[in-house]
Known about the structure:
Elements: E1 2-6, H1 11-23, E2 29-33, H2 38-51, E3 54-57, H3 62-72, E4 76-79, H4 87-107, E5 112-116, E6 132-135, H5 140-148, H6 155-173, E7 178-183
Parallel strand pairs: 1-2, 1-4, 2-3, 4-5
Antiparallel strand pairs: 5-7, 6-7
Helix pairs in contact: 1-2, 1-5, 2-5, 3-4, 5-6
Zinc ion is lined by residues 7-8, 11, 86, 89.
Amino acid sequence: MLLGIFAHSDDADIWCGGTLLRYAEVGSVAVFIDHCDMQRVNEARCAAEVLKYRLVVQEISRASVVEMILELRPSVIFTHHFDDVHPDHRRVSAIVTAAAIETKIQIGLPRQIFACDSYASRLRSATIEPTMLISIDNWVEGKIAAISMHESQPVEHFVDMSLRQTAFWGLRVGCKHAEAFVELPLLGRISNSAIF
Length: 196
Ligand SMILES: [Zn+2]
């Protein structure tokens, strides 16, 4: 089971949409996003249908994330990087990391936690250095369709940004499009293994 936890309604689709759709072929996927207005919730529901994940919209707090992990028991968590350029992303990353340590001690899950890509693959003090690159060659069209559901957002800009970033990461692993992830240590340890 894979659980994505993100600040905004379009984050899952932009940063890891291809991998979510690919993972849906082998396991279940849920995405937890923070409260937002009804239009953005409706857009996110349409994107969730395209990428075949269950969408949960609820206030993101340490308690709500712990509860969600204990209920869904994900082996893999995707979230934002702790050094992301967007302050909302950093806030969610800090909450998710703290909650994941709590549940890791309680039930041994998640097995792995990964930070996703960011705007132009920038962090505040560095650039993303992926520890895992997932080919999304067969799933990139679904990803673009999902991003396009967010009509209240600058769709053209995000589609262009996503395609350029995934094309760049694809170069590193010999495919057309790939998504980048950085495994975050849980209590000082990484699994160093693939999610598939
Ligand atoms: Zn965001």
